[in-house]
Amino acid sequence: MWRICTKECRQFFSSLTGYITIIAFLLLNGLFLFVFPETSILDYGYATLDGYFSIAPWIFLILIPMITMRSLAEEYKSGTFELLKTLPLSPAQIAWGKFLGATLIVLLSLLPTIIYAISIQMLSSTGGIDTGSTIGSYIGLFLIGSVFAAIGVCTSSFTSNIVVAFISGVILSLLIYKGFDSIGSMSSSNLGYYIQMFGLNFHYKNISKGVIDIRDVLYFLGIIYLCLLVSKRNIILK
């Protein structure tokens, strides 16, 4: 499993595209956080990373499917999947290896953004940022990235077309992230609240408050497990 994980990371960073993808993620977040007037932290008047944590999931919606679209689709297309199946690895280990490789890339893309928190803390004249909320938001953002990675591996396991894998990964991630929110907001009754509980954004906002509820964590882990279960089934059937 770890062989698959490290192989995914090596392949991603073996070309200039991988580095450009990470740089684009950091650049876009930096522009939204410090440059664009509608979202610039410099215009808020107080130290907060709320703008970054609200924008980053939307950038992840594009970035992570770009990372995962080749996970299994490229293996099917190039014929290397048959070679992969000859390795002493179970279908579950292949699926988890692909997922862990993508998740490690997500983590590596998040680590440099800690400089945003350090910069804002240094720029703040009084108080500084809310440390608890910031840590919770980073945990929530990593969990969202992990779910998107699992969805991307899952959609890639269905097809040998990387474009189809990318588009379906984006659409499914978007539906799970904001779809339930949108449907729930159309209802004025308590039912709308319970519908929103099925969405990623509901649990992300809970964790972003700095309070880690085991129910929110289990929700993220449950979606990851379900996506990888489907991926394992598709690998068995190929």
From TrEMBL:
Coiled coil segments of this chain: none
Topological relation to the membrane, as annotated: Multi-pass membrane protein
Record field: transmembrane: 12-35, 55-73, 94-118, 138-155, 162-180, 217-235
Key word Membrane present: yes
Organism superkingdom: Bacteria
Main location: membrane
Subcellular location: Cell membrane
MF annotations from Gene Ontology: ABC-type transporter activity
Keyword Transmembrane set for record: yes
GO CC annotation, single: plasma membrane
Keyword terms: Cell membrane, Membrane, Transmembrane, Transmembrane helix
Protein name: ABC transporter permease subunit
Native species: Rhizosphaericola mali
